[in-house]
Design a protein that fits this description.
It is a single chain. This protein starts with a helix and ends in a 7-residue tail after the last helix. It is elongated, with a radius of gyration of 17 Å. The chain is mainly alpha-helical.
């Protein structure tokens, strides 16, 4: 019985995580349509760092000019 409850809970958590990822991807695609083609999210953590640290166009422009990391 405990294993059945744990399995159901894990399934629910996995489904919640998938929904959250899909919502984030849809929102990113709405604001930055070409981003998904440019950034390979599966290759490394670089995409996550990019998206968390450089969230605005001016921040990304600073990165393109060789600016420093966000504070």
């Amino acid at each position: 019985m405990d294993l059945k409850i744990l399995t159901a809970r894990r399934y629910d958590l996995a489904a919640d995580r998938t929904r959250a990822i899909n919502r984030m991807r849809a929102q990113l695609q709405e604001y930055f349509p070409t981003l998904e083609r440019i950034v390979d999210r599966t290759a490394s953590k670089a995409a996550l760092i990019l998206l968390t640290g450089y969230q605005t166009p001016p921040a990304c422009a600073g990165l393109a000019r060789g600016g420093s990391r966000p504070g």
